Amino acid sequence: MPVTRDQILGELQRLTLPDGGNLVSRDMIRALTIDAGQVRYVIEAPDPATARKMEAIRAASEELVAALPGVTRVAAALTAHEERAAPPPPPQSAPPSLKMGGHPKPTTTAMRPEGVKHIIAIGSGKGGVGKSTVSSNLAVALAAKGKKVGLLDADIYGPSQPRMMGCDKRPASPDGEHIEALHAHGVTMMSIGNMLDEGKAVVWRGPMLMGAMQQLLTQVQWGELDVLLIDLPPGTGDVQLTLGQRSSLDGAIVVSTPQDVALLDARKAIDMFQTLKVPLFGMIENMSSFICPECGHEAHPFGHGGVAAEAQKLGVPLLGSLPLDLETRLAGDSGRPVALEGGVQARAYHDLADRLIEAGLV
Ligand SMILES: Nc1ncnc2c1ncn2[C@@H]1O[C@H](COP(=O)(O)OP(=O)(O)OP(=O)(O)O)[C@@H](O)[C@H]1O
């Protein structure tokens, strides 16, 4: 039986707060979503000082919810109403005073950075299918072909590009307004993870999320780019909707594993792009096979051909099938995407890059 919203709120009521009441009775739970066993919610504290004291409560709430039957993953984030008083000036050595995640500035224009020729979103229905791996490898493969490539990690819940691209620096902002983009392996990049303290669970309420996206697109100095790849969070939430509606995406690529459950979710992501009238450039099947390095036997741990069949049904191209491969994971973890090296894995990403270039999409 899938877990219900009421069951989750019931568990959260069990956590008594030090100053009385619980997370539910004090109306602190926001943006509770349940997506195929994955539960996400935001705990909104009345002010940042209280939020800082609530880390133990946040962690305990995740443990309680994770113990419910039918829950496969829990992500709880702490946020707080903004303080009204001006913050004290930062010490000289502090990172730039970039206030991320404020309410979006009202604007009628699209959030499209100037000088960027194409914007392509890389999405997935489900987390962990390899969307970030594909984004980083495609970015370095396109850059190796002489394209000016940007990579924007918009995965607010689990930004992985600083690790995958080996670039966890804080960006500079000499005027506190413009944010200098970072560079790694020939790619211009920025991640929400570069802006936040590592390991700190901070997520904003809906409007603040929009504000953060607006800042990443318009305050970051992306420069002249042939293409900006946007690594989306998994699923079909606020970030995807905002970017789909406001950033004039030229197209989207959906990554999935061949597994039925991943494909079901991928279909939802595809539906969302179609509703938003974002052209679907194609699908990528990741982890489609595994070649045993010892005996060369080919196995299909997540099934086989499911994404190809789905792409055919939808009438969209299957842009590539990428095997499950240890080197790919190790390279991602070490901050040097596998497409930087030679070999079969790199070839697969270079072929993907060639297809996009030949189709005039980049
Ligand atoms: N083809 C592959 N072979 C081996 N490992 C892979 C492959 N693709 C991805 N991985 C590994 O699987 C894990 C999840 O991949 P990744 O972070 O790219 O997925 P994701 O869809 O972006 O997940 P999330 O949305 O949760 O951030 C990572 O450790 C990555 O190195």
From TrEMBL:
Region annotated Disordered, chain positions: 81-110
Residues of the MIP18 family-like domain: 5-74
UniProt cross-references to InterPro entries, sorted A to Z: FSCA_dom_sf, MIP18-like, Mrp-like_CS, Mrp/NBP35_ATP-bd, NUBPL-like, P-loop_NTPase, YlxH/NBP35
Keyword Cell cycle in record: no
Domain of life (superkingdom): Bacteria
Binding site for ATP: G125, K126, G127, G128, V129, G130, K131, S132
PROSITE patterns on file: MRP
Annotated Pfam families: FeS_assembly_P, ParA
Keywords: ATP-binding, Hydrolase, Iron, Iron-sulfur, Metal-binding, Nucleotide-binding
Job description of the protein: Binds and transfers iron-sulfur (Fe-S) clusters to target apoproteins. Can hydrolyze ATP.
Family: In the C-terminal section; belongs to the Mrp/NBP35 ATP-binding proteins family. Belongs to the Mrp/NBP35 ATP-binding proteins family.
Subunit record text: Homodimer.
The protein's name: Iron-sulfur cluster carrier protein
Species: Pseudooceanicola antarcticus
Taxonomic lineage from the root: Bacteria, Pseudomonadati, Pseudomonadota, Alphaproteobacteria, Rhodobacterales
